[in-house]
Amino acid sequence: IWSLTVSFVLGEIRKLNEVVLDTDFSIPDVRRFSAAVGQPLEAEGELTFAGDLLLRDAALELRGDARIIDTEVTGQVAVGSEDGQPQIVGSLTSDNVRLSDLSVPIQLFSVDVPEHVDVDVSEEVRKNLRLALDLDFAKITGRKKATGKLVGHLEYADEVARLRDFDLGYLGGTVSGTVTGDFKEDVPTYAADLRIKKWQMGRLLGELGLRAPLTGTVYLDVELQARGENPRSWARSMTGYLNGSLWGGRVPGRILDLTGLNLVSWLAAKDPKTDSTKLVCVVVPVRLKQGVANGNMMIIETENVQIAGGGSLSFRDGGLNLGFLPRPKKQQLIDIVT
Length: 338
Hints:
With 338 residues, the protein is of the alpha+beta class. The chain has helices at 30-36, 99-108, 123-128, 201-207, 231-237, 255-258, 263-268, 333-337, and strands at 3-9, 18-27, 47-56, 59-68, 71-82, 85-94, 97-98, 130-141, 147-157, 160-170, 173-182, 189-200, 217-227, 239-247, 250-252, 276-289, 292-302, 305-314, 320-328. The chain has a 19-stranded mixed sheet that branches.
């Protein structure tokens, strides 16, 4: 159900400090193998690796091609040291990455670790490790065959992890920027500097397997910092800004129009073909400081109503203070008569 072949490759005699091992690993039937090891999976296909394991100057380099079901990845990763500091350097490329395939080896080789067992990375390794990986995935395929791409640089040095200058294209939109995690202190600090453009809200929610009650094109400009070890502490410490907008699309129901129209105008504006409201735009500029969000220039606009307002939301104590003023975009019949 699996095989591993390692062959010694005789190179140039003068390179006595270099050993090359031709390596082939194969699990030809993932479903059969998973059942045999007690981790039954529905995935059908194979896991393979074909390449070289190179030992040279106290460094180890793995290079070759891996296949996970329908995903093929070419990699070159070197593990060694420089100036006495451990480092991992390399690149991973693929013409097509299927997201569903990537979960297969994770599930297949997962190990249940008892809660009382602490996995501790030595302080010396954590402080001195250097990591630099170039990522270039030309196409990403999700569960509904929507495609995208990912290009970026994954780095770790001086206890700071960073996905730098990445560009993720997915579902017709893009996310670009840099995400950083600083682990020097006991409480880690995170930062995100992101630009999100032309993401289709309905397609995104559908790809995540969620019902899509809201549709439209999303734009986001985000610069946030947060501290903590879980989502709750991140929310309570968020500082920065978020400028978001949603253009076009629809929202279920017609309650938004009712806030600014009288009953006669609201009934007259009903589209017999749908029980939803067509959006023109939603604009939400927000500033955050230590978990408190403030925005005073929020706008929600439909074909018939414009709603302006703002207020604050505290992620620290749950406090909510919002106020909005709706108004019709056109003069209403009842107003004209009276």
